[in-house]
Integrase catalytic region (Cellulophaga geojensis KL-A), 682 residues
Amino acid sequence: MDNYKIKDKKLIISIDYLVDLGCNRRTMENSISKFNKGNSIFFHAHKDPITNKKWIYYESIPKRLLKKFNISTDRDIALKTLREIEKNDIFKIRSEINLLLKIQWDNPIYWKQYIPNYVLYFLDAEKRNLFAKTHSIISCVIELKKSRNYKLCDIHTVYLKFENAVFWNESYNYFSKKILEAERMGIPDALVHGFKRFGRNNYRLNNFAKKRIIHYYCNPKAYSRKQIRDKVNLELTERGLNTISYNSVTLFMRNNEFRNKYDILRKGIEFGYNDLFPYLTRKEPQFIGELFQIDSTRLNIKYLSEDKKIQSLYLCVVMDVFTRKIIGYSFSDSENQVLIMESIRMAFKEFSIIPKQIVVDSHSSYSSEEFKKFINVMDEYGVDVRKSRPYNPRDKGHVERWFRTFSSSYLNQLMGNLGYGIKSKIADGRAAQSLERFYNKPSNLRTKKQLINAVSRLINTCNNDKKVVKNSKDASWLAPKRNFLKRDIAKIFFSQKRIKVRNSMVRMSVKGLVVTYTIQNIKKANQLNNEYVYVRYDEGNLNSIYLFDMKNGEYIWKLEIDERIAIVPNPEELVKIKKFSEKQNQRMQDQFDMVQRDLDEAKEELNSIPILQDFNSKKTKEEIYRQAEDDYLISEIINLNYPKDKGKQFMKRKKEKYKSNNTYNKVRNEMRKKDSIRIIED
């Protein structure tokens, strides 16, 4: 290899040779450009037009650089030295070192074996490969050093050619020190924790600066790193101490030990509970309905709305953890409390088992007033509603795992599925942009109803998949005896109105539709007439309603909707009218019979109790007469029956009789005409 030659009686040296000696190529190239412009007297260059190789005139090389590389400043002695170096074949040695290091760097056979050492530290594959390559050449450097056939200074000179290495530094002293550290503590630890790209920072934080950083970091004002640096530097300057850099503050505050220790003061107690302190692990449920888990997510499948807009659909599910079955689900355009309550309502209605605990998400919808009322109602049934720990998906990991399985194994069957979403860290988790554009064409989109039906079918299919569902065979005997009744579902989920009962009927208006319900039970009618009650009803199905007491909220009765009769009734409706009239007459008679029984029971009880002799003598005849008249009056009123032959005339006469204010006097006069008082006297 030609490293020097004589041109026009002047000594010129190869620029590659100078680089091999340790001279910086960029320094020489910059000086060459300055030389051409007349701004520098150093590094006068000559370029061979055939080989395009650059040469530097010996006279233009700085003397301090020549001394650094042990080259004489005298031209003749330098020429003699170069001949001796060539004679000693130093460049042949360096060429061998370069060949060995280049093989370690370029050939994956050598460096791929070191990749597992850096998997835990770096997620980026390119960064792991770069560390593995650097590991390979450093291990080769250590082997060459141990062989004693090569000097470490020569190895360092060749090593500087690998500028992309993780560890690279021009200082030979720093290089030798770090190679010793790699031998002592191992190459992976030295690369990850010990090596710096261009060496360590010149300044290290002293204890005073560290304590002042901690002081401002824990301040409730939450100073930024720049503000902390400025405040600490001000205090250091006042005391005549060295200031600190922004990078020093950043590196000190990035330490995990620092953050774990002081973030609880900066971020609050919730950070400690959610991110720092341990939590209790819970046992798996032992029977059906012991534990429900609720979660919701946005389906990454678009649909075309009625106003021709592309929208997304949210799915909320309720899972019975013991069987891993989805027992309730609902769909909506947004994640809100209506979506959540609909899924819970379906679970309670279809499954009808009262759970011991319900685990919900920490979403804002679970903090709404409606959901707080639901929690209070569940507390009455002995159900514990618990929010999962924030940033801890394992707290409701079963339903989270179900969503992952459902997305990867079932939703991908639907055309239009865009994968896991933009923020997914799963490899190939998102559809290609070209496929996404194709799916989002209006002609390829489903309607909202079609998408709901398709996803519902997939949920039912998943519930029947033995790979997903567990403990479903012969597990019904494990179900608890506490079940939700229909009235419980009404109390928890149905809408409520405050209605006054009139004429044994409940009449109310729902969305402009007036509906009526009749209380057929006589006892309940007597109890509720002219009283206010809470009416629970389902807006989607008004066929039946449930009455609840306003004072204690207890269930009273269930009513069925009344059938309406046309203005001009047809023959079938005339039959219904006749039956209704007969039913009303019978109801009136039953009412009288009930009263008569109560009076007879009261009289029997009264007669069963003897009257004291002293009080019997004091009782006057007028009081006896008045009591007899009252008994007779009541019996006359109760014994008024409805003759079948008189019909409307009798009803008219009866109504007039009851409307009269002096009914009592008429009956009394009739009694006197019949000499009933005389009978009593006798």
